[in-house]
Amino acid sequence: MTELVHAAAVASVGESAVDTGDEIPTTGADDMAYFLNAVPGCYFIVGAQNQEKGARYPHHHPRFNIDEDALPIGVEVLVRSALSFFDHEK
Question: How much is the pLDDT for 41?
Answer without folding.
Answer: 87
